[in-house]
Amino acid sequence: MTAPDRPPTTTTTTTVTQEAEQTAAVSGFSSLVFASRWLQAPLYLGLIVAQVVYVWQFALELWHLIQYAFDHSHVPEQYEGFTSEAITMLMVLGLVDVVMISNLLIMVIIGGYETFVSRMRLDGHPDQPEWLSHVNANVLKTKLAMSIIGISSIHLLRTFIESASRDVDTDEMMWQTLIHLAFVVSALALALIDRMTLGSKQRFVPVDRGDTAG
């Protein structure tokens, strides 16, 4: 009576080893790709530096406004020939412009870092922004578009105020208006796409109806 044939254990072991090595290589490469998100960290650090520059710019603009409020002879060169009311309005709009751009930077820094780099783990923090709890790429793009519209509105308003005190090129005003309208249309399109995407996700979410009694 002959003994039964034994399975080729050597071939099986080699195959398992090759699969394990291949899995380890793919896992290592995947970890490297995932870790590459930290390459964006210096970019957000650079935006923080830009935020500091805007704080300094705001302080300078505020100082010029205070100087002009107490002494109308301190008129910035770019506002020469304007009325006192127009100069004050333009200076205040300059401050608002700096603040809105600073808000835009904050949204990009915090929202972008939270979305593309790492969780900030701010759950329960009393100062956590309201929008950060549900931020994603679509929400971030929509909010950035709205901020850009606000900044464009400030620049357009400044141009209309300046047109009352000096000759402003009609083509310049027209192009600023068209660009502003393009920003508005783009923001509406982003909001519509976000709403359509959210609606499609809700339609495909399975609903647990539970067992019905017979």
TrEMBL record:
Pfam family of the protein (one): UPF0114
Transmembrane helix recorded as keyword: yes
Transmembrane segments: 43-66, 86-113, 144-161, 173-193
Keyword line: Cell membrane, Membrane, Transmembrane, Transmembrane helix
Alphabetical list of InterPro entries matching this protein: UPF0114, UPF0114_bac
Compartments reported by the entry: Cell membrane
Organism superkingdom: Bacteria
Membrane protein topology class: Multi-pass membrane protein
Keyword Cell membrane on entry: yes
GO cellular component: plasma membrane
NCBIfam families: HI0507
Family under the similarity heading: Belongs to the UPF0114 family.
PANTHER family named among the record's database cross-references: UPF0114 PROTEIN YQHA
Name assigned to this protein: UPF0114 protein GCM10025875_17620
